[in-house]
Amino acid sequence: MLRLEGVVAGYSAVPVLRGVSLAVDAGQFVAVVGPNGAGKTTLFKTISGIVRPSEGRITFEGTDLLALPAARRAHLGIAHVPEGRQVFPSLTVLENLEMGAFTAAGRRDWKRNIERIFSWLPVLAERRGQFAGTLSGGEQQMVAIGRGLASSPKLLMLDEPSMGLAPAIADFIFDKLIEIRRDTGLTVLLVEQRVAEALESSDHGYVLEAGRVVLEGDNRTLRADDRVRRAYLGM
Amino acid sequence: MTAQLVENVLQALVAGLLAGSIYGLMCVGLGLIFGVMRVINFAHGDFMMLGMYAAYYLFGALGIQAVAGSLVGPYIAILLAGPLLFVFGYAIHKTLISRVTGTRTAQLDGEGHYAQLILTLGIALVLQNGGLIVFGSVLASIRTPLSSSAWELGPFWGDFVSVFLNKSRGIAALFSIATIVVLALVITRSRLGKSLRAAADNPEAATYMGIDVDQAHRLAFALGVGITAVAGGLLATNYPFQPYIGLEYVIVMYAGVVLGGMGSIIGAFWGGMTIGLVQQLSTLVLPTQLQNAAIFVVFLLIVFLRPQGFFGRVVERT
Ligand SMILES: Nc1ncnc2c1ncn2[C@@H]1O[C@H](COP(=O)(O)OP(=O)(O)OP(=O)(O)O)[C@@H](O)[C@H]1O
Ligand SMILES: [Mg+2]
Asked: Is A41 in the pocket of ligand 1 (CB under 6 A)?
């Protein structure tokens, strides 16, 4: 579904991604892990078109993404739930979700999507009229996830949905993601600091270090790998 | 004696409300542009000047007066000047402003603010001098028979107090408020309005939603220019104008936008309204020449006491 080949990208002069290749197949849950500054967020921004690569290819369902301006990519069915949530603070919760449904698919499925989003995340229904900027961090993360789901995406990209949240809230968000994925069978690309949980629920994982994929494999291979166990799982 | 005083105060209050509604509309146009794009547009007064001339020529030379008459004609011309200047603003954004704003500016020094200042100042100079060449320096005005008649409110308080409400100013204020109500509905209710607000709140996240942020900026800019053009046309039914009139009003507009809280569109309206009221009420105690000084004193006081403006959020957007 999503395929990156030899992507080199960065900001101004220095490249952050130094030749990243990665594939996500339809229906897969793929996790990307790696230390701070490895380039995980940059990878997501490159897929979404905020960062332009200097080399490499990115295709989504066979379409050359690099030929499309950033704003067109959401319309292909890519939903990006960005790092740090980035809700629209002066829009209400409901308006944030409506912006998620800016794509034609999102508008078509609005009724069904909003019902499902509210049943997964009932807090959003309770807070629908509140300005998103006044919500707690956990609630904002739920808005960001709901907003991503409202576009009826084919691929949901989540950048550290547990970042900056208390452990209990982070657990809650993680469980919700598992539940949502179980209910929908959605294709997911996840970046996460909580490596153990991320690898456990994923089908396939990539370890990104200093802009390179240093390791990849299915869930079992990665969790059995000595380097992963030592560096990320604390074993 | 007291009756006379009450009458003067009421008269100034009414004059302030009438002037304030038009200033409010001007400010809303500028506030929309600033709120969505965070661009300081020095040429805004000159776009308003173009709106005045557009309404003037549509009314006179282009035959609306001949077709619709002198009573309704001016307002038709003014309402047409809006879309005309919308198209002009759209083109100016596409050809010039977009080069120094929006998603491109991430790479520029100071997010492109220097380039924006110089560009909009340049556009202002070109429009002023171009206006002088094309329109000439003779004072123009859109004449309506209504400007020399008034409604009398009152008399109240026995027979002593009555207030006169100039008909053409009253109608201009009504048009102005109607325009703002329509705009407020568009901004708060419509998909377009919500996407403009989303693009203002967080351009990057808006892009992830599939919103073309540069296009959103272009529409906001064009809409802001169109709205201020309508305000200019309404003003032109009561005040004569010349190609340099933008200079006088751009200051009023900025004061109004800052008063209302930079970035708040409804705030910009109340900011403009405040300026109208201060300007007119100050004439009760100050000579008329000092009315603009009064605006600035109040402006400085409010900025000093409440720097985020009436409607500004204390927290900066994330
Ligand atoms: N806007 C930017 N301009 C310049 N450099 C940047 C920018 N954003 C990130 N970088 C740099 O790119 C590198 C990779 O950053 P990135 O945010 O992609 O890492 P990350 O893997 O997501 O880290 P984290 O786990 O902390 O979120 C870092 O060295 C960072 O300083
Ligand atoms: Mg990151």
From this structure: yes
A33 lines ligand 1 (CB under 6 A): no
Query: Please, how many CA atoms are within 13 Å of residue B190, restricted to the half-sphere of its CB?
Result: 9
Kindly report whether the peptide bond that precedes residue B240 is cis, defined as omega within 30 degrees of 0: no
Give the pLDDT score at B241: 95
| Assigned token pair, B288 | 């008329």
pLDDT at A153: 97
Residue of A nearest to B212 (CA): A71
Ligand 1 close to Cβ of residue A13 (< 6 A): no
Alpha-carbon B313 to chain mean position: 22
pLDDT per residue over B271-303, tens digit each?
A: 999 999 998 998 888 887 887 788 888 778 877
Residue A36 Cβ contacting ligand 1 at under 6 Å: yes
The atom of ligand 1 lying closest to the CA of A35 is: 25
DSSP annotation of B42 reads: T
* Interface residue of A88, A95, A135, A154 to substitute, partner B, most B CBs within 10 Å: A88
Q: How many CA atoms lie within 13 A of B43 on its CB side?
A: 30
User: Residues A23-30: what's their mean pLDDT?
Assistant: 96
Residue B235 vs residue B64, higher pLDDT: B235
Nearest-atom index, ligand 1, CA of A83: 27
Distance from CA of A182 to the nearest CA of B (A): 24
Rounded Cα distance between A6 and A14, Å, is 16
Predicted local distance difference test score (pLDDT) of residue B111: 64
Between chain A and chain B, how many beta carbons pairs sit less than 8 Å apart?
Answer: 76
CA distance A229 to B63: 82
Cα B297 off chain centre by: 21
Torsion of CA B62, B65, B67, B69, to 10 degrees: 170
Owner of token pair 């209050």: B13
pLDDT at B261 over 90: no
Q: Model's pTM, two decimal places?
A: 0.91
Tell me if B207 and A102 make a contact (CB, 8 A cut-off): no
In B, minimum Cα distance to A11 occurs at B107
**8 Å CB contact between B18 and B276:** yes
Q: Determine, for residues B197 and A88 on separate chains, whether the beta-carbon distance falls below 8 Å.
A: yes
3-state secondary structure string, B111-162? HHHHHHHHHHHHHHHHHHHHHHHHHCCCCECCCCHHHHCEEEEEEECCCCEE
Residue located via tokens 């809230």: A169
Axis-axis angle for helices B2-37, B44-59 (nearest 10): 110
What pLDDT score does A235 carry?
67
Q: Give pLDDT, residue B316.
A: 38
